[in-house]
Amino acid sequence: MSTTPDDLRARNLRMLATLAALFLVPLLLAFYMYYATDWRPVRRVNHGTLISPARPLPVVRLPRVSLSESGPPPTAGSANEFRTQWSLVYIGTGNCDEPCRQALYVMRQTRLSLNNNMTRVDRVFLTTGNCCAREFLAKEHAGLSVLDATGADGARVLREFPQDGRPYSVFIVDPLGNLMMSYDARQNPKGLLEDLQKLLRLSHIG
């Protein structure tokens, strides 16, 4: 049985209709869900709280605290403390209560989870008094930079960090000394790790 021109035309029309449906149905469904219902796609760029605009930290010399029990008194720190690499920062009293210990633990494990990139990140503890629980910090957090922020220069630095939720917060400072983000250390630390990995991957500095 031969195929007539009408049969061929009908077959082509059916094929075109099928292709059009494959393209239009998902598009129409997306329009319907977006405009006719309350559904909206969840868009989240970062897990932490973005500090916008980023806050440049003042260039100061904060005394560096030795964690050795018989170590020397605080020594003059570097003016480039926040300007060599990425920093995870916690602010609290040096006796380090439970929120402090949780935050420092999150900072330590997050840095370790960066694997080859861990050397690009420093951990900084800005102490606001009662310094310090040296035995605990030296045993559990070797390599932690402990800086005395009780003086006038410390007050200038602390002024740039948000007060709300500070006892539970971990902050990210970029290698140019800009305060960028804060995280609640009581939440799943995976978000902090993912955001830090993204920043390190995209960054051409530090």
CATH superfamily of the largest domain: Glutaredoxin
Give the CA-based shape: elongated
Task: Give the mean pLDDT.
Answer: 83
Main sheet: strand order = 1-6-5-2-3-4
Instruction: Indicate the radius of gyration in whole angstroms.
Output: 27 Å
Low-confidence spans: 31-35
Examine the secondary-structure arrangement and name the CATH architecture of the largest domain. 3-Layer(aba) Sandwich
- Give the number of domains: 2
Class inferred from helices and paired strands:
alpha/beta
Reading the helices and strands in chain order gives HEEHEHEHEEH
**β-strand amount:** 15-25%
Q: Calculate the terminal CA-CA distance, rounded to whole Å.
A: 75 Å
- Write down how many β-strands occur, each being a DSSP E stretch of 2 or more residues: 6
CATH fold descriptor of the largest domain: Glutaredoxin
Helical content stands at 25-40%
Largest sheet: 6 strands, mixed
CATH C-level of the largest domain: Alpha Beta
Total DSSP helices: 5
Structure overview:
The chain is α/β, with parallel strands linked by helices and 206 residues long. The protein folds into 2 domains: 1-43; 49-202, Glutaredoxin, CATH 3.40.30. The chain contains 5 helices and 6 strands; from the N terminus they run αββαβαβαββα. A 6-stranded mixed β-sheet has the order 1-6-5-2-3-4, covered by helices on one side. The longest helix is centred in the first third of the chain and has 32 residues, at 5-36. It is elongated, with a radius of gyration of 27 Å. The chain starts with a helix and ends with a helix. Residues 31-35 have low confidence and may be disordered.
